[in-house]
Amino acid sequence: MAINKPQKVLPKRIASIDALRGFDMIWILGAQGIFLALFSLTSWPLFNTLNAQMLHSPWHGITAYDVIFPLFIFLSGMSLGLSAKPLSAYDADKQSQLIRKPIKRLLILCLLGVVYNHGWGQGMPTDIEQVRFASVLARIGIAGFIATLIVWYCQHKLQYTLFIGLLLGYYVLLEFVSIGGFGAGNYTSTGALNIWFDQHLLPGATYQNALVDPEGVLSNIGSVTNALAGLFVGRYFIHQFKSNRPIILPLSIIGVICLCLGYGLSAVMPINKTLWTSTFALVTIGYSVLLLVMFYWLIDVLNFKRLALFFTVIGMNAIVVYLASSIVDWQYIANSLFGGVVAGSPSQWQGVVSVFCLVFVQWLCLYFLYKRNIFIKI
């Protein structure tokens, strides 16, 4: 006689996902400065090495700071995989409501991205040609929008085929296609195919007036694969969880395979964040999966709830965190509240104390929203 195990009920929110999103965003709050401050305090080479990881790679290669953005897109895709169904599964009225939502979200994120680009006390230029329309928020919106359409209208097998097709197709495009003297295997900052697309199809200005924008037109292809990978992992996560099957080991193997593929193929196609090459996508997917495994093990398995709370407070209002980093002078607020504490600290410790005060002020504001169940989502 076969005895079926009772099926687990997936919680409304998986604590480790919100916590990982918060961990991802804390480096945007200013925590990335802690390693430089610790190096100034101790002169230990380890902290200098870690501080170098808190900077974007100059062109080819990857640092820890380069993983922040792809991880956020991956987690957005995972949220989609945990909840989304084919559009045909809904009645006609519900379909009409659902279709409007991702379009509205895409437009709002694009608009907020322009606001973010021209924050930092500068304001938006009056000359439309000086406005930077490409942005991190717009890329999040585009990747999420395309992933949503794929979930709605494509069967699972086709979704996997599209994922592989995007990775391979993007490689073929950059490696073999030449337009206007750009491309055909040229991955430099002056000759990549992406430059032609950004110069001819991207309105307004590019980031720092460079030839190619890090959130430009063509590189959206690579970022969509990060969203799709998150979608697949989210769906797999549900299946394994409800079937009482192991999650940690299979996902760890998937993460390692992606890293091996990304690094292994980097001799053919360089790992490059600005171009968001297929190898960059694979490597960042690998790191994203392994970080998810680590947080799931710590928080949902070992039940480290205090760790979860600290990061969840940030992760539940991630868009607010990012947008506020451009339009709010957090350093001024931190100095106004804790400037005396910093000044009263031993001189060698002032840099470290200053970083903690900066992050703490922002965390307190987010905790205020969290305690009142105010979660701003788009």
Structural features, described:
Helix content is 64%, strand content 1%. By secondary structure, it is mainly alpha-helical. It has one domain (15-371). It has a two-stranded antiparallel sheet with strand order 1-2. Helix 4 runs parallel beside helix 6.
Biggest β-sheet: strands ordered side by side in the sheet: 1-2
Oligomerization category of the chains in this entry: single chain
- How many domains? The number is 1
Radius of gyration: 22 Å
Helix content: 55-70%
Biggest sheet statistics: 2 strands, antiparallel
Gross morphology? globular
- What portion of the residues fall into strands of 2 or more residues? under 5%
The overall pLDDT, averaged over residues, is: 91
Q: What structural class results from the helix and strand content?
A: mainly alpha
Residue runs with pLDDT of under 50 for 5 or more positions: 1-5
Instruction: Tell me the span between the first and last alpha carbons.
Output: 50 Å
The number of distinct β-strands equals 2
User: Helix tally?
Assistant: 15
Q: What is the H/E order?
A: HHHHHHHEEHHHHHHHH
Short note summarizing the structure:
The protein has 378 residues and is an all-alpha fold. The protein contains 15 helices and 2 strands.
